[in-house]
Structure formats: C-alpha cells, structure tokens
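Researcher: Structure for this, please.
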Amino acid sequence: MARRPQDVTEAELAVLQLLWDRECATVRELMDELYPEGGSSPYATVQKLLERLEAKGCVRRDRESWPHTFRPNVGRDELIGRRLQSTADQLCDGSLQPLITHLVQNKKLSARDRNSLRELLDELDSRSRRKKK
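Model: Predicted structure, token format:
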C-alpha cells in the first residue's frame, strides 16, 4: 500500500524529533546528531530528508540566515494525532476505541498516566454535559 504524501517516514521522524527538541537547527547540526561519524553522504541524506519534510509542510526553512536553519512546522501532538487516526482508519474502521483499549490493557500505565487519563475523561464528560444543556 502506498503512503499518502503527508505521511512521515521513520528517517524523517528522527529529524523532526531533533527539531522538536532543539527548536531549530542547520543541516550540519542535524547531521552531527544523526550521523556522528560524519562524511559527505550523511550530509546529503539529511539535506534530502529536510527537503522532503519541507515539501510535506512539516518543517520550514529560514532562508534569511546562512547557513539556512530549519524549524518544525508541525507539532509533536499533531503528528501523533495524525498517525493514530491513520492507524485507526487502516485497522479499526476509523474508531480510536480499539487502539485506546489495547494501549490501556496491554501496557503498564504508571499512576501518573492513569490519573492523567482519568482527568482527561472527566474533562471530556464535563464538556459533553455542558453542551447538552
């Protein structure tokens, strides 16, 4: 099955994760993190990954500075949401419920995670009740 154009590959995701952590970086800075052994081929690889991410609207390039710097144009939460919905569409006819159930039942949730989940559900219930009034 072909990927949709906005899908992010694992290699592109590695670049995005660095940009989320750093906020902005040059090709060289990203290359140094991803390929500490250096070389010209890794530089071209990172440059190509950034070009693809830019074409997908996931990063933006500051052409005013030299060397150009890149910033994330999509947030981590937004990408998580897109990927989860895509997985739900492919595996669960669009429903997130089976994914959530699987994660809750099969992964060890910390007390903090359980409390956060309860608070989120309580907030959603509260919003739902307010809308019905």
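Researcher: Any notable elements?
Model: The two ends are 45 Å apart (CA to CA). The mean pLDDT is 89.
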